[in-house]
Amino acid sequence: QVxxxxxxxxxxxxxxxxxxxxxxxxIDFSSKTVAWYRQAPGKQRELVASxxxxxxxxxxDSVKGRFFISRDNAKNTVxxxxxxxxxxxxxxxxCNTRRMTARGLLDYWGQGTQVTVSx
Length: 119
Prior knowledge:
The chain is mainly β. It has no helices and eleven strands.
């Protein structure tokens, strides 16, 4: 059974930092692209950052230069370092990965972790 568990969210002031973690079980993260998404109240879920098995990264324009995604394959964990946080970064942050199965491509999501940034 695949399980993704996010942690590290919280309430901070604008300008502060947080580091989110996504720990996986039941799946080998090292061979997968892993992404962080976020969803603010009343808005659609959006891609924040992703990292491939080869450690190539991609970021939403809104977080470039402030957020950094990394992975520790030995711990089967992906991180999102969030610096210079802004109130508009307030959202529930979700970890995601995909795997091809006999039933096709399956998406796996964590339960989400709340990030609240106050001005």
